[in-house]
């Protein structure tokens, strides 16, 4: 198999007590959508909860939606500044989307994230690799099995068993039956810890109850850092009606909180997080 080169980014986390990593299907995020006050307001508050967020389904052709969102986020949350990093356009045939990482960086002293863009050839090996995926509902099984092979490739390439797979996997309800879910390599192979469990509801509509959005941890060190993981019911927290919430997304964000001080095996003073921007599998590679 031939793998196109991945784009990579390195972030050093130091001293932070707890560290929250999130994924959110922002449901066709465009400039027009972000420009609406209630949408902007809610998105900013969702983003401000996270040290690293992977926003999925960014379909903005203007190129202005993310800078606008970033500016508002940095106005709202003084613990930043936040920065962003976008993937190339990813997709199959006519449908393309971008994944955008928002991550918190701190100036001066204190806990925070220090980011620096690198191409290949990192000086330091990552202690944690993030691999986002938004599956297409028509090929959930195929793509999740491809994700397993991406995992193998990534963990070999970066000599790290500590990997977090996350995003809207469409891993439930009509898109993937429980029987088929349990046959995935990510379920049958040992070592994968699905921290957003099958019974969770990651959908906004009261009429649906599906665990589409997932976070899967791999690696002993990674698991030893696990503090909490949950879908974030933003409509309840921000007192939005279902209708108002649906103007933001029909998905909840999913979040995992890692606690650096909890690790008993290795005591990391810093965590090197590698953000994978472009998936390596041929099925999942960037649109031409
Ligand atoms: C949802 O967004 C549309 C378009 O801006 C707006 O007209 C509508 O009032 C919004 N709905 C709610 C419940 O806020």
TrEMBL record:
GO cellular component terms, alphabetically, are: endoplasmic reticulum
List keywords of the entry alphabetically.
Answer: Disulfide bond, Endonuclease, Endoplasmic reticulum, Glycoprotein, Hydrolase, Nuclease, Signal
Annotated localization:
Endoplasmic reticulum
Q: Give disulfide pairs as residue numbers.
A: 173-210
Q: Where is the signal peptide?
A: 1-18
Q: Which GO terms describe its biological process?
A: DNA catabolic process
Which residues constitute the catalytic centre? 97, 134
Domain Endonuclease/exonuclease/phosphatase, first and last residues per copy: 23-251
Task: Give the matching PROSITE patterns.
Answer: DNASE_I_2
Superkingdom of this entry's organism?
Eukaryota
UniProt xrefs under SMART domains: DNaseIc
Instruction: Provide the GO MF annotations for this entry.
Output: DNA nuclease activity; endonuclease activity; hydrolase activity
| Stated family | Belongs to the DNase I family.
Q: What is this protein called?
A: Deoxyribonuclease
Organism, scientific name:
Macaca mulatta
Give the classification, highest ranks. Eukaryota, Metazoa, Chordata, Craniata, Vertebrata
Which gene name does the record give?
DNASE1L1
């Amino acid at each position: 198999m031939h793998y196109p080169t991945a784009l990579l980014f390195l972030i050093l986390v130091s001293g932070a007590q707890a560290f929250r990593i999130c994924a959110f299907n922002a449901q066709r995020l465009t400039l027009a959508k972000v420009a609406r006050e209630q949408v902007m307001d809610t998105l900013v508050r969702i983003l401000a909860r996270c040290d690293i967020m992977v926003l999925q389904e960014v379909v903005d052709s203007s190129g202005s939606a993310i800078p606008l969102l970033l500016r508002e986020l940095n106005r709202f949350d003084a613990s930043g500044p936040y920065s962003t990093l976008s993937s190339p356009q990813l997709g199959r045939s006519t449908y393309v989307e971008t994944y955008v990482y928002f991550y918190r960086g701190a100036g001066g002293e204190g806990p925070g994230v220090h980011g620096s863009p690198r191409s290949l050839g990192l000086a330091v090996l990552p202690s944690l690799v993030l691999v986002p995926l938004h599956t297409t509902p028509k090929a959930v099984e195929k793509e999740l099995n491809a994700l397993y092979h991406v995992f193998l490739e990534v963990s070999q390439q970066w000599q790290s068993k500590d990997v977090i797979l996350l995003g809207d996997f469409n891993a439930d309800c009509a898109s993937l039956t429980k029987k088929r879910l349990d046959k995935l390599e990510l379920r049958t192979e040992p070592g994968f810890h699905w921290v957003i469990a099958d019974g969770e509801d990651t959908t906004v509509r009261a009429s649906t109850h599906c665990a589409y959005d997932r976070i899967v941890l791999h690696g002993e060190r990674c698991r030893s850092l696990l503090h909490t993981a949950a879908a974030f019911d933003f409509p309840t927290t921000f007192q939005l009606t279902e209708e108002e919430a649906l103007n933001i997304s029909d998905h909840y964000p999913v979040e995992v909180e890692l606690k650096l001080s909890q690790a008993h095996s290795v005591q990391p003073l810093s965590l090197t997080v590698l953000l994978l921007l472009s998936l390596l599998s041929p099925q999942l590679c960037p649109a031409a």
